Amino acid sequence: MRIFLLYVATAVAEIVGCYLPYLWLRHGRSAWLLLPAAASLALFAWLLTLHPTAAGRVYAAYGGVYIGTAILWLWAVDGIRPTPWDLAGTAVALAGMGIIMFQPR
Question: Is the pTM of this model over 0.90?
Answer without folding.
Answer: no
